[in-house]
Amino acid sequence: MENRVTVSICGEDYTLVAEEAPSYMEKIGGYVDGKLSELLASAKVGRSDAAVLTAINIADELFKERESTDKLRAQLKEYSDEATRARNEASELKRELFKLQNAKR
Length: 105
Fold this sequence. Notes:
about 75% helix; elongated
């Protein structure tokens, strides 16, 4: 089901239509509004340029987060592989111990 939410971004109302929860869409609209307002307050640029710069900044955040996520995934895979090797080594050592214990009997 599609939800409709009106959000205010830089003093303009925009109707967002999506399947996400209204609270999520409001959160997204508020984030964009905050980033755009922050840029307008700190730079001497018009709204169009501010909108483009805001989009670039948000895209930069996205790409950095993806890179960070990829690094975390790789690190988790290394940990998982290491744990698997340790389990295999422990199993092999248990088998060896069992053989040694049976050989003494």
